[in-house]
Amino acid sequence: MHCPFCRHGDSRVIDSRTSDDGLSIRRRRQCPECGGRFSTIETASLNVIKRSGAVEPFSRDKVISGVRKACQGRPVTDADLAILAQRVEEAVRQTGLSQIDANEIGLAILGPLRELDEVAYLRFASIYQAFESLEDFEASIAELRADHARARVDDAAATASD
C-alpha cells in the first residue's frame, strides 16, 4: 500500500477492525518512511457475469432497482428494499464464489422478496423462473397458499402448547 503522503511503496498495519456489517476490514496503517498514518478499507470483490458475458461488480443498487419495479404500487419502503439487497448480497457471498451469474442473483432475491411482499414476489418470479403460462402462476399461488396453511397450523399448535 503506497503512502498517500510521500508515495513510499510500503506501509505497516497498526490496527485492523471488521466493519459493523462484517463485509469489510478497516486497517490503520503507518508509513515507515515519513511516519504518516492513514486508514484503508478492504473488501472482497464480487463480480456478476451478465447474460451477454460481460462482467461487472456486484451492486446492491442494481438489486434494489430491479426489485423496485416488482414492488410498484405495493407497501414496500426504501428501507425494506435496502435490507433485502443486504440479505441477497450476504447470501451470494456465502457461496464463496468471486463471480456469479446474474440469473443466480435473481434467484437469490426470490426468498427474501417472498417474505417481504407476495405480490411483488409473483411479479419478480414470473421473470426469473420463466413463467410461460397461467398454470405456472397458479402453481406458485398454490404453493404460497400451502405455506400460509402450514403457518396457521404451526401458530395454532404453538398457541395450544402455551
From TrEMBL:
Superkingdom: Bacteria
Zinc finger unnamed: from-to: 3-34
Cofactors: Zn(2+)
Residues annotated as domain ATP-cone: 46-136
Cofactor note: Binds 1 zinc ion.
An annotated GO BP: negative regulation of DNA-templated transcription
Keywords: ATP-binding, DNA-binding, Metal-binding, Nucleotide-binding, Repressor, Transcription, Transcription regulation, Zinc, Zinc-finger
GO molecular function: ATP binding; DNA binding; zinc ion binding
Family membership: Belongs to the NrdR family.
Protein function: Negatively regulates transcription of bacterial ribonucleotide reductase nrd genes and operons by binding to NrdR-boxes.
HAMAP family: NrdR
Protein name: Transcriptional repressor NrdR
The organism of origin for this protein: Microbacterium paludicola
Organism taxonomic ancestry: Bacteria, Bacillati, Actinomycetota, Actinomycetes, Micrococcales
Gene for this chain: nrdR
